[in-house]
């Protein structure tokens, strides 16, 4: 009986000795950690780590704020340049709108349209109406300056067409009246048709393509009178300053379209540069 219980007692004593030894080691480690030198060293280490972490976070937020500040300033300068190009285009376009006043004073004084053509004003009215619709918030919300310039232009072109109808001969009256009604019907069809397109992106694409076509047609309209200039050997019907103003206006809106990321605007006015340059050279060499 004694022989059988000795191993168990031996293991119990060994286990108690191991536990006591482990507890002694832990107590000695805790006492060592509580010594001033080691405690202060660990405290300094952790304070340094936390301070470095907070400094890193602070510098990160500071750099992020500086980045967004620079981005905001650059965006503001970009917007100013875009608006400046659009305003310049509006001013130059207004000069073009009032440029035929001398011609219409002559028409009113002589009570005749003489050899002046009314087709450029028909094309200009169609262009102004379609581009005015393109600039509305329903189609493209970012093109307010396109809306303003074409609204003013549509009023001027309508007045000029009415004067052609009043002072033209009978065939001119009938032709101009018919063309005016056709333009109004076409514009009404464009508006009603585009409103049927539910997708805003598709609506903008459709009206934008039409505005491109109308812009190119309007700027090509002065080419109708190049034959008249060549035949009469006079630039009376196509003044040099008018052609130069057209070129400057198209340049302004070309920049506006580029800065506004609007392909319909800058592609249209890039194409019309060809017609404007052709008109300038023709007027210059004939003069």
Automatic annotation (TrEMBL):
Keywords on record: Membrane, Repeat, Sugar transport, Transmembrane, Transmembrane helix, Transport
Cellular localisation: Endomembrane system
Membrane topology term: Multi-pass membrane protein
Keyword RNA-binding: no
Residue ranges that the Swiss-Prot or TrEMBL entry lists as coiled coil: none
Domain of life: Eukaryota
Segments crossing the lipid bilayer: 44-71, 77-98, 119-139, 145-167, 179-198, 204-230, 237-258, 264-285
UniProt KW Transmembrane keyword: yes
Molecular function GO labels: sugar transmembrane transporter activity
Predominant subcellular localization, coarse grouping: membrane
InterPro entries recorded: SWEET (IPR047664), SWEET_rpt (IPR004316)
One GO term describing the cellular component: membrane
Similarity comment: Belongs to the SWEET sugar transporter family.
Function, as annotated: Mediates both low-affinity uptake and efflux of sugar across the membrane.
PANTHER family linked to this entry: BIDIRECTIONAL SUGAR TRANSPORTER SWEET2 (PTHR10791:SF111), RAG1-ACTIVATING PROTEIN 1 (PTHR10791)
Name of the protein: Bidirectional sugar transporter SWEET
Source organism (scientific name): Cannabis sativa (Hemp)
């Amino acid at each position: 009986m004694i022989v059988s219980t000795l191993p168990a007692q031996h293991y119990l004593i060994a286990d108690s000795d191991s536990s006591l030894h482990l507890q002694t080691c832990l107590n000695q480690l805790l006492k060592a950690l509580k010594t001033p030198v080691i405690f202060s060293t660990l405290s300094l280490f952790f304070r340094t780590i936390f301070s470095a972490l907070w400094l890193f976070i602070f510098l990160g937020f500071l750099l992020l704020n500086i980045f967004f500040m620079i981005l905001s300033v650059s965006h503001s300068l970009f917007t100013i340049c875009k608006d400046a190009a659009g305003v310049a285009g509006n001013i130059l376009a207004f000069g073009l709108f009032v440029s035929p006043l001398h011609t219409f004073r002559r028409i009113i004084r002589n009570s005749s349209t003489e050899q002046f053509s009314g087709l450029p004003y028909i094309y200009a009215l169609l262009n102004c109406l379609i581009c005015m619709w393109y600039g509305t918030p329903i189609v493209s919300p970012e093109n307010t300056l396109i809306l303003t310039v074409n609204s003013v232009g549509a009023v001027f072109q309508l007045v000029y067409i009415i004067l052609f109808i009043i002072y033209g001969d009978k065939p001119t009256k009938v032709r101009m009246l018919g063309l005016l009604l056709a333009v109004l019907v076409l514009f009404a069809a464009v508006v009603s048709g585009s409103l049927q397109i539910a997708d805003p992106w598709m609506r903008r694409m459709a009206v934008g393509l039409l505005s491109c076509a109308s812009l190119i047609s309007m700027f090509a309209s002065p080419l109708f009178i190049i034959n008249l200039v060549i035949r009469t050997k006079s630039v009376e019907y196509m003044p040099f300053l008018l052609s130069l103003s057209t070129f400057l206006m198209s340049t302004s809106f070309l920049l506006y379209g580029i800065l506004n990321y609007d392909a319909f605007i800058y592609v249209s006015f890039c194409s019309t540069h060809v017609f404007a340059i052709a008109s300038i050279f023709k007027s210059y060499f004939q003069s």
